[in-house]
Write a structure and sequence with these properties.
This protein is an alpha+beta fold and 200 residues long. Helices cover 53% and strands 8% of the residues. It has helices at residues 13-25, 41-46, 65-75, 87-105, 115-133, 146-161, 163-167, 172-182, 185-190, and strands at 5-8, 30-33, 54-57, 60-62. Strand 3 and strand 4 form a beta hairpin. Helix 5 crosses helix 8. The radius of gyration is 17 Å and the shape is globular.
Length: 200
């Protein structure tokens, strides 16, 4: 069997969560770092939509980060992440929260949007997470799981848009949770810098 190939971009939150699942699973794969304004033709051939992450396996091509996470963890899930998936949290994160995050952080890309309005809408979502995290260290209990790893890269992106503002909010549990995950060995391990993959 050929080694799976992951096309990734270091700062993309979708790629982050895919890399973390692959890393914790221990599944061997080739990492190909791409530059989104200079996408390699090899990636576009297998995934014409041109977004990352993309995982090329013997069984086919996976173009969605959650599918890549599940693919890796089905093969080896040493921390039991698949037992802590929380589909309703994933849907809220990848749907409404991501919608507001984009229009807050990248407001100039959209017509007639008020970034403050979208920041406040995203904050409502984070308040719900904060309430949930008041009962346990992680979103689904005492140990980190699929939901934590799938969601926190987007919360990190939101926090970094205006760190002082974020730190001033009444989100003690979200802030604790985010700091712990961002400073984890797992996250630091998948954030190592790679040179752009150019192909042959």
């Amino acid at each position: 069997m050929a080694e799976p190939i992951l096309y990734s971009f270091r700062r993309c939150p979708y790629a982050m969560r895919a890399r973390m699942a692959l890393h914790v699973s221990g599944v061997a794969h080739e990492h190909r770092e791409v530059v989104l304004r200079d996408k390699p033709p090899q990636m576009l051939k297998v995934s014409p939509k041109g977004t990352v992450p993309v995982l090329v396996t013997d069984e086919g091509v996976l173009e969605e980060s959650l599918d890549i996470m599940r693919w890796a963890l089905v093969r080896n899930d040493p921390e039991g992440w698949l037992e802590r998936e929380a589909p309703e949290l994933l849907a809220a994160n990848d749907g409404p929260f991501k919608h507001h995050l984009d229009r807050y952080k990248y407001s100039t890309r959209y017509n007639d949007v008020d970034p403050e309005e979208h920041r406040q809408a995203a904050l409502v979502h984070l308040c719900a997470l904060d309430d949930r995290l008041s009962a346990s260290p992680y979103l689904c209990g005492e140990e980190r799981g699929f939901a934590d790893i799938a969601i926190f890269p987007f919360v990190r992106q939101f926090a970094n848009a205006d760190r002082d503002w974020f730190e001033a909010q009444d989100l003690p549990n979200v802030q604790r949770w985010l700091d712990g995950l961002v400073n984890s060995e797992l996250y630091e391990g998948v954030m190592a810098k790679h040179d752009q993959w150019k192909g042959s």
